[in-house]
Amino acid sequence: MRVACIIPAFNEESTIAKIIQGALKHCDSVVVVDDHSQDHTPEISQRAGARVVTHILRLGAGAALLTGFKIALRTDAEAFVTIDGDGQHDPEEIPSLLQPIQDREADVIIGSRFLGRHGSMPLHKWIGNKFLSIAASLASGVRVLDSQSGFRAYRRTVLDYVMHSQRDYRYASEILILAARGKFRIKEVPVRTIYAARRRRGAGIRDGFKILYSTIRPKSIGQPTMTASER
Amino acid sequence: MEPYAIAAGAFGAAMLVFTTYELLRRKMSLLGYFFWAVLWSALILIGVVPQFYSALLLATQALGMYTPLHFVTTFSILILFAVVYYLGKRIAELDDRLSTIVHHIALQNANIAAVNPGKGKEKLLEPRSSS
Lengths: 231, 131
Known about the structure:
The complex is a heterodimer of chains A (231) and B (131).
Chain A lengths: L2 E7 L6 H9 L4 E6 L6 H7 L3 E4 L6 H12 L6 E4 L11 H9 L5 E5 L10 H18 L11 E4 H6 L9 H11 L4 E5 L14 H12 L15
Parallel strand pairs in A: 1-2, 1-4, 2-3, 5-7
Antiparallel strand pairs in A: 4-6, 5-6
Helix pairs in contact in A: 5-7, 5-8
Chain B lengths: L2 H22 L5 H19 L3 H4 L1 H6 L5 H48 L16
């Protein structure tokens, strides 16, 4: 199975090379979408073996992922893996994400930080993620424990029919709701969470409220162009 | 003439000159110029002829307001809210357009790099097989 990995990145020069090298062990190609970094993320990514696409302005993680999906869909990959560029996820766990797709068990696989060991997750993030996952579960009708995880795998057909519109962190819930509405099978597998002692960015409290609002507001989520059963 | 009247008149005149200059530089539409010109002229008028307020008395009484000042402040705030609403909507539209352009440029650059893999940029795409 041909696999493309997509990494949205903004100022990740300290971690991106390791992530790319790790991802290349399990994926045929790696696309880094540089969301207008102010450091050497694009150059380092290119040297590490990734294909780099650059946004001329910073749009947000969701927008970077959208560009990555559009680029990756032009390749002949059958599955896509998304992973954060900040070193929060271990690329060595990519095979366990891809396994349910290979076994035809599921179409969207979420690397769940709550099924694995999540001891290093800060308490406020743990509480926020729990709230947002409950909201996403209610909105999608599918029980998910970690709706905000950026470490995921998608079968190609999912992205052919499901494409998010949110430019910021709201994309994570939106994709799940769209996939559930499209009757694609969603599964979670445990992954480790690696939180740096001094993590600079990530979704904050304000983002949390925005995600919650867009999740419970039906108008903010569209419909997939086609459902799994219609294909 | 009271100092506040001089200040209001001078400010209105300066802004009218600036707005006219913007129109002549083609940085403003005629409709926009008309709106602002009327506003600055009213400010000058209030400064030079403070009795102008009493001309509003009829409208004030018709609307059941106590003084012309109530009329001016109430409608100014309403208009400002309308302007803020319009600007917010316009900014959201422009933000969407900007996002579309950034996506488009990123995808276009990816295409160029795929066509010219050896010219300064790494090959970005593998074309999908037709089978």
